[in-house]
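Hey, I was hoping to borrow your eyes for a little while. I'm sending you its amino acid sequence along with the backbone structure tokens. Take your time with it, there's no hurry, and the full record follows here.
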Amino acid sequence: MKRRDFINRTPAMACMAAFLPGFLTDIHFMERPDPVITVRGKVKADKIGFTLTHEHLLVDFIGAGKYDPERWNDEEVIQSVLPYLEEIRTLGCKTFIDCTPEYIGRDPSLLLKLSEASGMNIVTNTGLYGAADNKYIPEYAYRESSVQLSDRWIREFEEGIGGTPIRPGFMKIGVAPGPLSEFHKKLVSAAALAHLKTGMTIASHTGPSVPAFGELKVLEEAGVHPEAFIWVHAQNEQDEEKHLQAAEMGAWVSLDGLSTENGDQYISWLKNFKKNDLLQKVLISHDAGW
């Protein structure tokens, strides 16, 4: 298989499996009835096609304390971003997983406009992002229990986000790079409860392996299989054995940050997964945008 084909085929197959609720290890996604939930509604798994699994159309790094969706103008964003969506669609990409969490620029109504204008499937999320020293965590999250937080995310899944009918297709959380704090354990526990109720996959900005395996432990204790977990930014862990260990457990290993400068490293990682019959557990994307 040519190098380009190797890259192009691998994430397209894996990403469909990762974002199907309750998906099991045998990749028979074409046979499953579970839909992918996009901002325009449900799409059958065999219709989502080649997918970018970790990208961003808009972010606002101001922090939860000053966060205000009025800080941007939808039409200006559309004018800036739409050409990129149209370009990747001509290159064969059909689905765009927008990983921007709440309080960092998640805007489901804007994503709907961009989806309709571009013809792309766009998937948004629910959850809270605890990385970056909790800069994007609202005050209520410190007061509420994991059950209360999970109820918020379940409600968005069942009823829609912010009074709209737009539903999240997965959860996006984030933790610090070291051992999990009690607060970050609460976020993971909330995600576990929401997964058990809704089947939503948990994508967690994680990085090194220490918090990744900490999260997997919390999920296991809650009765959640590693299949429900995406280890985001696993490329920040240089020990390839840790990648393989997580994949063997069933977790999804997401290598984000692919660029023209680091392609050889990504090829090396992929070859190692392939050698160990774990290539189907890898997601690849750029974590680009905004």
About this structure: The CA atoms of residues 58 and 77 lie 8 Å apart.
